[in-house]
């Protein structure tokens, strides 16, 4: 059977094998980038925290919607951090790495990032609807706030929280595999969206255990940021974004351009 041109094109980008501890190195390098040039990162983190605050206000008494939206945020956040990948790349190249570098990636003609953003937004919306339907339909009592979510869903009788987590993981795993390398690659290389996605999947299949650890670190740190009344996201989101750039650089052996 003949392979698609996108699959064949993705084979020019060879996955690198990494040790299990490599995600910790990415965190270290991400912290260095963030502290060297904190302005763009703090702006991204502040906007993320403000967005979370707006979600709380708009959701009102429908905390089930907030729970789904915040977990859906994990799906869309890598794309929102694209500007910080550009900052890390600029510092790597010895180029100016200020706000202009972060904003330049959102050029209206960059339809590949826009297209990927639409796909991620659809995935996030699907999870918000699924999460809401599950909690409304199967929670034994109304879930109107964080305390209700803790008592009814997390600590309540039955398997509701486990099922909620399992469904979230079923959706998040392929999204993570599709985007962990693809988004920085779309910034860095003039490649078609399917090529970047196939490359990302090949990277994950090559080293599933370190990448699973990386996904767990991202989820744990993001949860920590949310647990601090969102203020932790101001630092955690840019830290993870810069670290994700270094993950891409370690995971993919790039062919010469041209």
TrEMBL record:
Keywords per UniProt: Membrane, Transmembrane, Transmembrane helix
InterPro entries: DUF2189 (IPR018692)
Segments traversing the membrane: 41-59, 65-87, 113-139, 159-187, 208-241
Pfam families, A to Z: DUF2189 (PF09955)
Protein name in UniProt: DUF2189 domain-containing protein
Organism: Rubrivivax albus
């Amino acid at each position: 059977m003949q392979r698609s041109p996108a699959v064949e094109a993705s084979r020019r980008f060879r996955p690198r094998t990494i040790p299990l501890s490599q995600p910790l190195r990415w965190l270290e390098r991400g912290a260095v980038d963030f502290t060297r040039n904190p302005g763009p990162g703090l702006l991204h983190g502040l906007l993320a925290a403000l967005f979370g605050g707006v979600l709380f206000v708009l959701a009102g008494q429908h905390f089930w919607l907030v729970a789904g939206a915040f977990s859906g945020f994990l799906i869309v956040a890598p794309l929102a951090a694209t500007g910080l990948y550009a900052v890390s790349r600029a510092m790597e190249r010895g180029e100016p790495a200020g706000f202009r570098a972060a904003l330049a990636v959102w050029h209206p003609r960059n339809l590949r990032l826009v297209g990927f953003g639409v796909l991620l937004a659809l995935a996030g919306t699907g999870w918000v609807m699924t999460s809401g339907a599950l909690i409304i339909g199967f929670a034994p009592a109304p879930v109107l706030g964080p305390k209700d979510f803790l008592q009814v869903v997390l600590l309540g009788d039955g398997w509701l929280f486990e099922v909620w987590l399992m469904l979230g993981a079923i959706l998040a795993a392929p999204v993570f595999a599709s985007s962990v390398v693809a988004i920085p690659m779309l910034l860095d290389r003039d490649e078609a969206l399917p090529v970047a996605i196939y490359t990302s999947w090949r990277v994950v299949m090559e080293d599933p255990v370190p990448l699973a650890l990386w996904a767990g670190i991202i989820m744990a740190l993001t949860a920590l940021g949310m647990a601090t009344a969102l203020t932790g996201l101001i630092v955690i989101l840019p830290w993870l974004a810069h670290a994700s750039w270094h993950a891409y650089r370690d995971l993919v052996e790039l062919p010469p351009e041209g």
